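Both lines are given unchanged directly below:

***
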Amino acid sequence: MSNYPEDKILSCLNQLDHFYALKFGKADHHVENTVLHAARFSLQAISKSDAAYHDVDHTILVIFAGQAILEGLHVSGRIVTKRDWGLFTTALLFHDIGYIRGLCKRDHGNLVATGTGDELIELPVNSTDAALSRYHVDRSLMFVRERFRSEFDAQGLLNPGVITDYIEMTRFPFPSGEDKNPDPLAELVRAADLIGQLGDPNRLQKCSALFKEFEEIGLNAKLGYRRPEDLRNDNASFYWKIASPYIQRALVYLNLTREGRLWIANLQANVGEPII
């Protein structure tokens, strides 16, 4: 009998291992082992989430989109080092870990850290992990600062400060007037998060799950969505008005490889019109 979450996790781990072997060979697996350890922890934790949309499938799709972007970046002639891959991939693995209660040191049951200083909030009884949407990026940053070095990277191979800088790029809505991170990989982390969602082959079907999360946090009323179909019908508008400016460089890299062009095709199918 298939264990769906575990099968998905093993498939993701195998693909990360395959990507590493193709790009960097079979010698010196220290960075890879650090990332795979982080990957197993993250994906197993997220697989237990009761959030309707931000589940293990979402994180895996973002990781796969990110690997496709890195492949295109490599093909373009830009050198991608083991450390680049490790920092980039770890940021994607942990970008939504803040949705999971109990992982920050001050979490205790429904009393959870917001990720800002020592602040705690009490979640409503019977709320799902989607209730942490407002705080999840700050909680993800807190998790990395509290636990990454001691639990995943005792050798100090990957700088947790860079990982948190990359995760910060996934904050949404995008902060107005934000300073541009000079590291080009930071921009590509944000693009991977967007493309992993908008290029999901099942994106339109999953709008019902996203609507459910929005309803729990009161976002549907603010956005004018009364039913899942409203969110689904807004997909193209969201792409062109919000996402498109932030993924153009990533699309250039994706267009250089077969896997990348599959992501572009899925994205175009969901938007309903050519995007490049």
